[in-house]
């Protein structure tokens, strides 16, 4: 029996900024990456194997995946036959506004994988509402239902200790990377800017604080910026230059590895502006 080809369908709701994705993958889906948004998804078919919070998770049909902004994660098939899922990308501002009546201003997901049939059904319904013509009130009602079912899974963010010198070094290096995402800074220069003894001390401190290397972190910053530029209508070549990628093909490879769709296809879906080069995974 032949395995269906990989496919990604994305819908962008301009009024709320929420994105709905329906995807199917035969094996590998995407490399380790981060998002600016809150991710809430449900597995429809197969076994969805993903890394999050330092451990591998296996999501089977009906299970719900919850990933916070900036949480690194990947995706691949956990069994033969591939997998399919639906996912909502909820902007931070939208979620914050929806939780305005909830104590605590910095919530977090209690777990990255859970069993909640009602939430799974709400996610499926919202994806359908955003992916097909629907009245504004119907779309809002579907998203409100997701938010209502999310509340039991949200708790206050844990207090983070300020740490010592290593934590300060990591924090300063992170600030340097955020200040100029497109800059071509070397490890030695970054270590000096962060006040580290050398690049090796910086690498240890940064990984301890953020779970990855400065280079991998910078790549994720560039991909997130590219998503924002493409969603705003920027062409892939211009986005690649603005984000510090070597060229459009470099952005294309990294973008597809991270999100399962080409930059041109993502731009077309977000802006309704067709592009001859646009195609999906």
Automatic annotation (TrEMBL):
Keyword Transferase: no
Keywords associated with the record: DNA-binding, Transcription, Transcription regulation
Residue ranges crossing the lipid bilayer per the database entry: none
Entry-linked SMART domains: HTH_ARAC (SM00342)
SUPFAM superfamilies to which the protein is assigned, alphabetical: Homeodomain-like, Regulatory protein AraC
InterPro entries named among the record's database cross-references: AraC-bd, AraC_XylS_family_regulators, Homeodomain-like_sf, HTH-like, HTH_AraC
Protein name (database record): AraC family transcriptional regulator
Originating species: Teichococcus aerophilus
